[in-house]
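Sanity check

After download, print the first record. It should look like this:
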Amino acid sequence: MARDRLPEIGAAETARRIRSGELTATDAVESAVATIESVNGRLNAVVTPLFDEARQEAREADELIATRGSENLPPLFGVPITIKDCFPVAGARFTAGSWFHRDDVAATDAVAVTRLRDAGAIVLGKTNVPDMCWGFETVNPVFGRTVSARGAAYSAGGSSGGEAAIIASGGSALGLGSDIGGSLRNPAANNGCVSLKPSTGRVPTDGHVPEVPEAVRPWNHAGPLARRIEDLALALGVLDGSGITELPDVAGIKCRVFTGNRSMIVSPEVKSAVNRAAAALGQAGMEVEKSPPLPIQRLTLLYSHRLRSEALAEINRQLGGGEEFSWPVEMTRAIAGSPRIAPEALSVYAYIAYGGLLKPGTGDSSRMLSGLRTHVIETVGDGVLVCPLLLARPARHGATWLPFTQIPMAVPFNITGLPVVMIPVYWTAGGLPLSVQVIAGPGRDELALAAASELEERLGGWRPVD
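Expected C-alpha cells:
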C-alpha cells in the first residue's frame, strides 16, 4: 500500500498489515509524522511531539520482526498513537494545559498509557487540552487554541480536542482521551471521528490530571478515540486488560430513539440524523421504538449542583496551580492579555459556581440522583439508546461560553456510568459531521460498539478531511 494512503486506514488495519509484512512500523510512523507535520500548523493539535523517540521505537519493532518473525505480536504492535495531555507519558512534557504546570515533565506513564505501550503501540506525542481540561473549547495559556479538522472557524471541542482533531485529520491512528462531561464525545462530534466513553471503572484513570475529587471520580472516564469502530473495540480490549473485544450480533435487540424532550431545542437536522441512524439500525435487524421521556434537564442540574457542592473548592485549587484563585483577579488578567488561567476555563468555573446553585426539587440530592440514574438505566434496558449529543451542528469558536448548549445530552451518561459510542452518521453540504450517541447498559460496551459498527457499515462513519 502506498504510504500516502496510510492516513486513510485505522489502528486495527495498520496492525494487520504490519503483521502480514505489507507494512513496516517505520512506514506507519513516518506516514503519521508526515501527516502531522503537514496539518499541525493549521490545527495546533499535537503540542509535544515525540517523533525521534517514535522513530527509534519503530526501528526496534522492525528489527524484532526481522529476527523473530511476526508470530504472537501484541495487538497494537507498531501502531502510532497520541495521548491527551492530561495523562503522563514518562519523560515527556506534561502540562494539562495549565500555565502553572507549563514546565512539568512526567516521571512515569499513566496506567492506560502503559497498557497501550505493552500492546505494542508507539507514542507519537501529546495533544492539546483546555486549561486543566475544564472547557468545551480546546484552548489554554500554554499552547493556545486547537481548531477543528473540519475548518479553522470551527471549535475542535473539548476537552480531548487535540486528539480528535489530529485523528480526524489522518495523523495518529488511535488516541487516549478522557470524559467527565462529554470530553471524549464532544470533540469526536465536532471533528467527525469516533470515540468510546467506557462504562465506569472499566478503563483505569490513574495518573489523570487534574485528579478528579473523590465524590465525583466515578463520572470521569478514560477511553479511546479513532477513525474506525473496530479500532475502538481493539483499544477497549487493551485498555481494560481483557485482550480481546468480541462484538455481539444486534439482530432482535431493542433500539430506543430519543431526540429530546419538549423543552429542549434540538435542531431539525440533528433530529433527522438521529432518525437516520435509527432507520439504519432497523435495517440491521434491531427492534426500533421511540424512547419514553428521559430526565435530561434534571440530571444536568444535579450534575452541576453536585460538582458545586462536592468539587468546586478542589477545581478552584487545581485551576490555580495548587492555591485558591480569585475569579475577578484572574479574569482581569485575562482581559489585559496576560492570563494565567484561560478565560474559557473561568467561564466553566463560573457556570459550576452559579449554575450549581440550582437544584431540581427538594430533598436529598444523593437519593434523587440514585432514582434518576435507575430510571435512565431501566430505559436503556438490555438494548441500546440512540440520541443526539450536540443540539445543533458543530459550533464555531466560543462554544465554551454557552455550556448549556454543550452538556445536556452528555452529562447524564457520565452520572449513570453507561458506555457511549460517538459516531458521525450524516455530513452537511459544508462538510460538517452530524453525530449520534449510541448508549448501552452498564458493562455492555461491546453492544454499543456493535450497534455503532452497523451504523458505520451502512452510513459511512468517518470521512477523510478534504
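If your output differs, re-run the checksum step. Summary of this record's structure: The chain has three domains: 3-239, 254-292+372-459, 299-355.
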